[in-house]
Amino acid sequence: MSAIQVKDLIYEVPGKRILDHINLEINAGEIVSIMGQSGSGKTSLLKMLTGLRAATSGSILIDGVDIVGLSERELDKVRLKTGLVFQYAALFDSLNVYDNIVFGVTRHKVSSGARPGRAQLDQMVSELLAEVELPGMEERMPSQLSGGQQKRIGLARALAMKPEFVFYDEPTSGLDPITARTIDDLIITTRDRNQVTSVVVSHDLASIFRISDRIAMLDQGRVVFYGTPEEARLSKVDMVQRFIASELPGAAH
Ligand SMILES: Nc1ncnc2c1ncn2[C@@H]1O[C@H](COP(=O)(O)OP(=O)(O)OP(=O)(O)O)[C@@H](O)[C@H]1O
Ligand SMILES: [Mg+2]
User: Fold this and answer.
1) Residues with CB under 5 A from ligand 2 (ion)
2) From atom 30 of ligand 1, which residue's Cα is the shortest distance away?
3) In angstroms, what is the span from residue 19 Cα to ligand 1's centroid?
4) Which pLDDT value is given to residue 200?
5) Which position among 25, 44, 54, 240 has the lowest Cβ density within 10 Å, counted as fewest Cβ atoms?
6) pLDDT at residue 252 above 50?
């Protein structure tokens, strides 16, 4: 069974169909990128997958559980398995790096009655900071971090919950190419070390081709291509070719 199965997903707002019969299967441990022109429905799809916005019809199975139509309380249980890394890191400005990272863990563990000790949290934060290559940054405030560093702390915060799924919204946008490649490497090591299933919404074609096991191309709310990067390069689908030709000079055949 696939880790994520999207079946006949439709999302409509009054007067407009935004997602049109989306079908996608994402295997456990896979990195799937969603690409497409502005307005094609990428963010809408990510919001459906994370239950942030309710689908009009169809189903989204996360580990076999259909999240379409679940109550907020039931959705919260599924959300414990998922991490979200937003386009803007969305750190709490008034909390230092340490408190940002432990925020979700302490809140969740307190409500479930198993509060981890300080030493345990210290060790977890120190390991996560090493993983995102920002060791020793516990005391820094978000305002003292660069954009790329904030994104990495955002990833550390998501990983603190030990998610089975991580959803990334434009993780490399606004970063220089070298920092962007560092984030790419982190997305890959996160998958390899923690066996997470990853869905990445991105405009960054270089990144998409580096990290993806499979790529889904959206056009006007439809999936017009779903395959490996190699298959994308060879694809005869017009939109795929235009995308590759416009953004990766020399890559189109
Ligand atoms: N709540 C809404 N009401 C009306 N239209 C919406 C709503 N949400 C999204 N849309 C429209 O749906 C389409 C898809 O939007 P979406 O944000 O998913 O695009 P996107 O692929 O993420 O684009 P971008 O690359 O610019 O971020 C757009 O035409 C957008 O204007
Ligand atoms: Mg978007």
Assistant:
1) 43
2) 39
3) 10
4) 96
5) 54
6) no
User: What is the pTM (predicted TM-score) of this model?
Assistant: 0.89
Give tens-digit pLDDT for 185-237: 999 998 998 889 999 999 899 999 999 999 999 999 999 999 999 999 999 99
Ligand 1 atom closest to residue 41's alpha carbon, by position in its atom list: 18
Considering every ligand atom shown, identify the ligand nearest to the alpha carbon of residue 45 and give its number: 1
Q: Which letter does DSSP use for residue 116 in this model?
A: P
Burial readout 90-127 (b: 16 or more C-beta within 10 A, e: otherwise): ebeeeebbbbbbbeebeeeeeeeeeeeeeeebeebbee
Question: With 80 as the cut, is the pLDDT of residue 138 above it?
Answer: yes
Cβ–Cβ under 8 Å, residues 88 and 82: no
- Copy the structure tokens of residue 230: 């190699």
Q: Which of 181, 194, 84 is nearest to 128 (CA)?
A: 194
CATH class of 1-81+202-253: alpha beta
CB 203 within 8 A of CB 217: no
Residue nearest to atom 17 of ligand 1 (CA): 43
Beta strands 4-13 and 57-62, pairing class = antiparallel
